[in-house]
């Protein structure tokens, strides 16, 4: 099939390939292995045939149980559906959040606002981490050539954006590429990229505002990165400690999803 970043899905939302991105070690992400998307409930019969022919084998649904009950994913032959709800966040503070709060209290004299920011919670909260761990376990199972995993939420931009950030980081994709892929949601969903000002402007970070926001912005992704750096001293430790991925697991992921660049 033709290699294209945005798949020709008629009734899906923000349906994209992660194949073709270069990695730091000189390889590229394989095509027909990693897909990201918004909700799938409105896929047409033709869309489902296309995805079946494309090799879609695993559907990791990052939405809440409530969202899934209202708009369940369709059945596609040979596709396994996996629920990995990022929301709701747990009410208890895991050690990673406590470390982050300690860091903020040390730096600032006022009450920190971190616990109201969903992007930071998505990478630190126990319940959200469990969802992303499920995604990585599915990725390790997807070991056949030309068979794909799709991970998605509702709009395919926030929860899916964090999932893509974690997966691409695990595969060694440079940060600039990860950020460009993250911002691509704005172009796919609304036809144009936001200005730099709108992409980085401070917004109300309440969960419902995030879900309703038209654009993704780099400030949100940077907040998640900062939380990982503070609580885990970097993405590699995060993948080991929060995602329970061993060096062997990370090497296997690279074996499954990357290849030497073709001349």
How is the topology of this model organized?
Elements: E1 16-17, E2 27-29, E3 34-37, H1 45-54, E4 56-61, H2 65-70, E5 80-83, H3 95-107, H4 118-124, H5 126-141, E6 148-152, H6 159-170, H7 175-190, H8 196-200, H9 207-212, H10 218-232, H11 235-241, H12 247-257, E7 258-260
Parallel strand pairs: 3-6, 4-5, 4-6
Antiparallel strand pairs: 1-3, 2-7
Helix pairs in contact: 3-10, 4-10, 6-7, 10-11
Organism: Pediococcus damnosus
Pfam families: Y_phosphatase3
GO molecular function: phosphoprotein phosphatase activity
Question: Summarize this, please?
Answer:
By secondary structure, the chain is an alpha/beta fold. The chain has helices at 45-54, 65-70, 95-107, 118-124, 126-141, 159-170, 175-190, 196-200, 207-212, 218-232, 235-241, 247-257; strands spanning 16-17, 27-29, 34-37, 56-61, 80-83, 148-152, 258-260. Strands 1-3-6-4-5 form a five-stranded mixed β-sheet. A two-stranded antiparallel ribbon has the order 2-7.
């Amino acid at each position: 099939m033709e290699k294209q970043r945005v798949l020709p899905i008629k009734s899906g939302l923000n349906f994209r390939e992660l194949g073709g991105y270069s990695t730091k070690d000189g390889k590229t992400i394989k095509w027909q292995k990693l897909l990201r998307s918004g909700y799938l409930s409105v896929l047409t019969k033709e869309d489902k045939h296309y995805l079946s022919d494309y090799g879609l084998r695993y559907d990791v649904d990052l939405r809440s149980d409530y969202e899934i009950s209202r708009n369940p994913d369709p059945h596609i032959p040979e596709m396994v559906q996996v629920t990995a709800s990022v929301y709701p966040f747990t009410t208890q503070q895991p050690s990673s959040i406590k470390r982050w709060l300690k860091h903020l209290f040390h730096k600032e004299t006022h009450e920190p606002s971190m616990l109201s920011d969903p992007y930071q919670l998505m990478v630190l909260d126990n319940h959200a981490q469990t969802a992303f761990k499920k995604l990585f376990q599915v990725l390790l199972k997807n070991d056949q050539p030309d068979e794909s995993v799709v991970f998605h939420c509702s709009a395919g931009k926030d929860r899916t954006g964090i999932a893509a950030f974690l997966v691409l980081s695990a595969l060694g994709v440079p940060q600039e590429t990860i950020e460009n892929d993250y911002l691509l949601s704005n172009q796919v969903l609304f036809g144009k990229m936001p200005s730099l000002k709108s992409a980085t402007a401070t917004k109300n970070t309440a969960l419902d505002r995030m879900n309703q926001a038209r654009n993704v912005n780099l400030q949100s992704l940077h907040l998640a990165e900062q939380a990982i750096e503070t609580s885990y001293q970097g993405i590699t430790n995060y993948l080991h400690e929060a995602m329970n991925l061993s060096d062997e697991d990370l090497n296997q992921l690279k074996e499954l999803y990357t290849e030497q660049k073709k001349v």
